[in-house]
């Protein structure tokens, strides 16, 4: 079976983990965490970064930093991963679901003003497949209403919007190093903060609500319970693994882009399927390759027949507003999100996918859709 995705392995992971073991400094916030932080700040112009155990945890930090509480409303695209909503739900917020665009699954900024109430505190956007949302429009609307913007950039490390790295445009950016992402530590995440007022408190929340940083910096002679917080940072073992990956990130993204373009140049000419629109100012990172089929029935046929030929293909998100958890309160119709859920198919893409496998996949897609 040709897999849908496969993690990149650099070969240095074990070497760095061995170094951690020899140092006997296992717990976290050490040499490898710092190496990752420095790299991420320099390479992507992120001002303030903190590794976390997951993207979910990074968003959880955001929900604490913003003091999300019952009564607050958070706008979340329906077509996204559960994690974009869950940390806010856990703090008692009401989720207001937003629809997608018709030419890609990203949030449609035009409907935002209709979704605002005086309780709206946050808009979460998710850059699907590393293809940027319309950030100028979103930031302008949000700023004019004093609403915070959180970028769920789980797919998007290294991708840009008008020459700015995704994750650095909203007030917060959250990334994932889950095994399905372009670089991974198995589980892992990153919080980027782009608004200075949150830096100091973030240090405390990151370290279980203590002022341990001030203690380590010699500013106080003991460290104490200062604020709420959780154990957000990964162990040095995880950071060492991640460092071995991050060192190769630019090369990984470049290779993935070659494979992405290879698919795109051929598949764009098949009239029975549609590909996502990528605007000139959006340089993506080839996180995934997907295509749009005419409807759910044809989508199922394509997935099934690809599987019969040893090719793993799948649909993607189910609309959050129709999920068993949300449904009790929500009977709204979000046409585009529901349409993406019904019609989108992802096909294999990973760092070392072979050209002959891509040729085989392209040929099979062509022959399956010919009968539509
Ligand atoms: C992978 C993913 C996440 C979750 O990441 P974790 O690191 O597993 O918490 C969140 N949002 C989106 C859009 C994702 O694709």
Condensed summary:
Belongs to the DegT/DnrJ/EryC1 family. The protein is of the alpha/beta class and 372 residues long.
Task: Tell me about this structure.
- The chain is α/β, with parallel strands linked by helices and 372 residues long.
- The protein is 37% helix and 14% strand.
- It is built from 14 helices and 13 strands.
- The strands form three sheets. It has a seven-stranded mixed β-sheet with strand order 1-9-8-5-4-2-3, sandwiched between helices. Strands 7-6-11 form a three-stranded antiparallel β-sheet, with no helix packed on it.
- β6 and β7 form a beta hairpin.
- The site of pyridoxal-5'-phosphate has 14 residues, from α3.
Structural class: alpha/beta
Percent strand equals: 5-15%
Runs with pLDDT <50, length 5+?
none
Order of helices and strands: HHEHEHEHEHEEEEEHHHHEEEHHHEH
How many strands?
A: 13
Number of helical elements: 14
CATH class value of the largest domain: Alpha Beta
Under CATH, the topology of the largest domain is which?
Aspartate Aminotransferase, domain 2
CATH homology superfamily name of the largest domain:
Type I PLP-dependent aspartate aminotransferase-like (Major domain)
User: What strand order characterises the main sheet?
Assistant: 1-9-8-5-4-2-3
Main beta sheet:
7 strands, mixed
- N- and C-termini, Cα separation: 25 Å
């Amino acid at each position: 079976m040709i897999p849908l995705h496969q993690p990149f392995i650099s070969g240095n992971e074990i070497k760095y983990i061995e170094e951690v073991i020899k140092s006997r400094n296992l717990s976290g916030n050490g040499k490898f965490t710092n190496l990752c932080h420095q790299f991420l700040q320099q390479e992507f112009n992120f001002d303030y970064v903190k590794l976390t155990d997951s993207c979910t945890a990074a968003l959880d930090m955001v929900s604490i930093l913003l003091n999300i509480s019952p009564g607050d409303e958070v706008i979340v695209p329906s077509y996204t991963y559960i994690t974009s909503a869950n940390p806010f739900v856990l703090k008692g917020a009401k989720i207001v679901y937003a629809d997608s665009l018709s030419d890609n699954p990203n949030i449609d900024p035009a409907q935002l003003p209709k979704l605002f109430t005086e309780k709206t505190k946050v808009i979460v956007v998710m850059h699907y497949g590393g293809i940027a949302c319309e950030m100028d429009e979103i930031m302008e609307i949000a700023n004019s209403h004093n609403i915070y913007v959180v970028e769920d950039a789980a797919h998007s490390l290294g991708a840009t919007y008008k020459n700015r790295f995704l994750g650095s445009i909203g007030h917060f950016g959250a990334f994932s190093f889950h095994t399905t992402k372009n670089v991974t530590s198995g589980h892992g995440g990153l919080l980027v903060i782009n608004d200075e007022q949150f830096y100091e408190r973030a240090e405390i929340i990151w370290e279980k609500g203590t002022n341990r940083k001030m203690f380590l910096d010699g500013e106080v002679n003991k460290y104490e319970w200062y604020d709420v917080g959780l154990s957000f940072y990964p162990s040095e073992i995880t950071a060492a693994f991640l460092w071995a990956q991050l060192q190769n990130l630019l090369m990984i993204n470049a290779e993935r882009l070659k494979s992405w373009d290879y698919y795109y140049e051929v598949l764009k000419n098949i009239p029975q399927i549609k590909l996502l629109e990528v605007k000139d100012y959006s340089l993506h990172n080839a996180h995934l390759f997907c295509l749009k089929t005419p409807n759910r029935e044809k989508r199922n046929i394509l997935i099934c027949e690809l599987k019969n030929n040893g090719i793993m293909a799948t649909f993607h998100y189910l609309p959050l507003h129709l999920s068993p958890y949300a449904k009790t309160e929500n009977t709204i119709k979000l046409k585009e999100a529901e349409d993406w859920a019904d019609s989108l198919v992802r096909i294999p893409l990973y760092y070392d996918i072979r050209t002959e496998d891509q040729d085989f996949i392209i040929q099979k897609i062509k022959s399956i859709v010919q009968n539509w």
